[in-house]
C-alpha cells in the first residue's frame, strides 16, 4: 500500500467509525447528558418553587451531608441502600445461582421452569409492588392467610419497622431473581461438558462442583450480576414508592436515597414542599457514589476474572 | 447423580415455580372478584360475574387506542435502540481507535444517571425542539435511556466473536458495511434479543414520561391511561387488579410466545 | 391590501359580528381529581353556554405526580390556562415565583363572595396578594357506622371517656372500633389533628401561632399521649394498614368509626350507598368543653400567568367563584364551598357546615407547611414511630419543634 492510499484508508476508516457512533451519541447527548448536567447545576442553586433564585455554592451539598435535619435522613437512606444491596446479593443472587445450577441438570420439566422463573421479570415494578402490597396486607393478604392456616399469626409486614424493608427486598427478589438466574445459567452452559464430567468422576459432590469448579468459571457472569445489582440497589425507587410510599413508611424505616431525592426535589403529596436545590444535591451524591463504586468494583471484578 | 439428590433439586425447582406462580394466580383471581369477596376470603374463588371488572376497565377507558399507542412507542423505541446501540457497540467492540475507552464510559455512565431528576431541563429541551406532545419526543427519551444498557450488553457480546470470518471477508473485498451486516450481525442475534426484551419491559411499563410530555388524549399510552383511570378506583381492588392484569397481559403474552427464542438467545452467550 | 383588511376588521368589530367568531377558543383546566370529571364536565358545559365559543378541556393527573407535572410544565412555560391549586404553602410556592395571575377585586369581582378567613389561605403571606379563588373547605371529624353503634348499644360518644367506653362495647360485640391504620403518613396527621383539636382547645393554637408556646408544650404532648389509649381499638396489625384498607374496613361494615375528613362523605356514599353513616365532631375532653372540629381550605382555582387565553381563563375562574358554582359543588361532589350563602341540600353536609362554626385550624397545614422541613413531614414520620412504640409523645413534640425551629424564629432556643 502506498502512503497516500493508506492515509485515505485511515481517513475513511475514521469516518466510518464516527458514522457508527454518531447517532447514538447524539441522542444520548441531547436527551440525557445535557438535561442531567443542567439538573446537576441546580445542586449549587437556591430555589423558590420551581424557579432558581441564585447560586449558593456548596451549601446544599453541605446541608444534605452534615447539617441536621437533612443529614440524618441522607445517612439513614444511604445505609438502607447498602442493606438492600447486600441482602439482594445474598438472597436474590444466591438463590439465582442455586436455581441456575438446578436448571443446568436438565431435569424433567426444566424448560417450563425456565420460562416461569423469568416470568415476573417482564412485569412492571408498579404491578409487582401493588400486588405484593396486597398479598402482605395484615387483614386480607394472602400471605397472612396462608400463615393462619399453619396456625401462625403473621406480622403487619409493611407496617413494622423490623420487617418492612425486608419485605420489600423479598418482593424485589421475587421480581428479579429470574434475570441473574438465566445469566448464571447461560454462563454455566458454556462450561465444557468434559470439565464437569471429569470432576464428577473424581467424586465431586454438587456442593464441591458449585463452589470450586463452576464458581470460578462463571466469574464474568458474576461481574455483570454484581454491577447491575449494585446500580439497581442504589437507584431503587419504584418498589418502595408503591409499597410504603414516598416518605418511606413506617417512620422512615424504608427510606432510600431514590425516595429521599424525589421527595426532596418535588415535595411529598400531602406533606412537603419542592426543594430542587437539596434534591439535586442528593442526586449528584448518588451519581458520584454509584459511578465511583461501580468503576472500582468493575476493575476488581475484571481482575478477578483473569485470576480465577 | 443419586435419586435422592435428583429429588432434592427437583423439589427446589418445583417450590420455586410455585412461589413464582402463586402471586400471579392471586392477581388473576382478585381481578374477577369484588372488594367484599376479597375481604371475606382473600384466597376464595370468584362467585359473581367473572369478567365484570375487566369489562369495566375495557368500557371506561380507550383501551384499544392506548394499546396501539403503546405498541407504536415501544416498537419504535426498541428498533432505534437496537440500530443505534448495535452501531455504537460494533464500533467499540470491533475497531481499535483512540478515545474508545472514553466513548464507552460516556455511553455506560448513562446507566447511572437519574433522568427523572432532569425532568424540567428535559421538558424545556423537548419544547425547544418542538417535540412536546409527540410520540417522537417520547421515543427519543426512551432511546436515550435504553442505549447505555444496550451498548453495555452488545459491546460485551460483539467483543467475543472470533475475528477470522471478518478478516477473510475483508480479504475477499467486502466493504466494512457488508462485513457488519452480512457477517457479524447475524451472529449477534441472541444478544439483540436480550437487549430488546430487557429494554422493552421498562418502556412498555413507563407512565411517568407520557404523563409529563403527552397532553393529547389520542396519544396516551396504556400505562398512562390506566394509571389515570385507576386513580378513581384506588380502593376498588377488583377493578385495580383487572387493570393491572390487562396492562401486564400484552407484554406477558409476547414473552411467553417468544420465550423459546429469548431463552435460547440468553443461554447462547450473553456472557463474554 | 393590509389597510383594507384592517378597515374590514374594524368594521366587523364595530358591528359586533366578529365577537362570536374570534372567541372560538379552547382553554384547559388541570386537576388531581379524576373522580370529579363528570361534575366538572357538566359545569363547564354551562360555562360554554354563557360564553359561546369558549370550551374547557378537563385534564386530570394522578395525585402523587400532580405537583411534579405542574412544576415541570410551568417552569417550561407550558402550563394549562386554569390550574386547580392547593392552598397555603402549596399555593405560595407557585405564586411567589410569579407563575400565577394576581386576583384583585377589579379582575375578579367574585372574590367579594369569600369570607375574610379564606384570603389568608389563598394569598402569599408576605404581600397579602390573592392568587386563587376558593375550591372548598374540609372539616375533620369522625364518620360513624350507625348500625354497629346501635348493635353495641352505645350512643354517639361526646367526650373522650365516652369514646373509650363506646370502643370497649364495640370490641366486645366483635367489631373493630376505629378503622384507621397508621401506614399512610398523611392520614396520621389527619388522625392526630382531628382528635387532638378539642383536647388542646382554641387558646393553644393562638399561642403557637403567636410564638408563645411550642409543640413541646405539655398540653400538646399530653394530647398526643391520649391517642395511644386508642391502640387496643384499632385494627389488628394497624401499623401495616394503609389508607385504602382503612376505608374498606369501614365501608364493608367491619369497623364502627373512621377518623377522617368531610371529603369522605360523598366518596363513602358513592362506594356503599346502603351504609347508614353519620359525621360527628371529635369528642371533647369533658362534658363542659366544646367539641371542636379542625378546619382548612382545600385548594382553589388559579389563572396561569403565561396563559395565552388569560381573559377566558379569568372568566372561568370568576364563574368558579360564583354562588351557583359553589351550590353545584355541594350538590354534585359533596364539597363545601366557602362562598358565602351557598345552599347545602344534603342535611349531613349542612350539619358539617354548622360544626365549622366552632373550629380550630388544622395547624401544620395552615401554619407550618410553608418552608422545609414542613411541620407536616416532621409530624407524620414521628407519629408513625409513636404508634409503633419507638418514640414517646414528648420526643415527637421535641423533634417537630426542633425541625420547625430551622426557619421559625419563635421556636428557636426553646
Describe this structure in words.
The complex is a heterotrimer of chains A (308), B (272) and C (414). Chain A is built from 14 helices and two strands, in the order H-E-E-H-H-H-H-H-H-H-H-H-H-H-H-H. Chain A has 308 residues and is mostly helical. A two-stranded antiparallel sheet of chain A has the order 1-2. In chain A, strand 1 and strand 2 form a beta hairpin. Chain A is flat and about 70 Å long. Chain A starts with a helix and ends with a helix. With 272 residues, chain B is mainly α. Chain B has a domain at 61-222: MetI-like fold (Orthogonal Bundle), CATH 1.10.3720.10. Chain B is 75% helix and 0% strand. Chain B is globular. The mean pLDDT of chain B is 85. Chain C is α/β, with parallel strands linked by helices. Chain C has two domains: 22-136 and 298-339, D-Maltodextrin-Binding Protein, domain 2 (3-Layer(aba) Sandwich); 140-295 and 358-411, 3-Layer(aba) Sandwich (D-Maltodextrin-Binding Protein, domain 2), CATH 3.40.190. Helices cover 47% and strands 13% of the residues of chain C. Chain C has 18 helices and eleven strands. In chain C, helix 10 crosses helix 18 (393-404). The longest helix of chain C has 25 residues, at 185-209. Chain C is globular and about 65 Å long. Chains in contact: A-B, A-C, B-C. Chains A and B meet through helix 1, helix 3, helix 4, helix 5 and helix 6 of A and helix 1, helix 4, helix 5, helix 6 and helix 7 of B.
Summarize the main sheet of chain B: none
Question: Nearest-angstrom radius of gyration of chain A?
Answer: 24 Å
- Under CATH, the homologous superfamily of the largest domain in chain A reads MetI-like
| Strand order, sheet with most strands of chain A | 1-2
CATH architectural category of the largest domain in chain A: Orthogonal Bundle
- In whole angstroms, the N-to-C terminal distance of chain B is 30 Å
Give the uncertain stretches of chain A in residue-range form. none
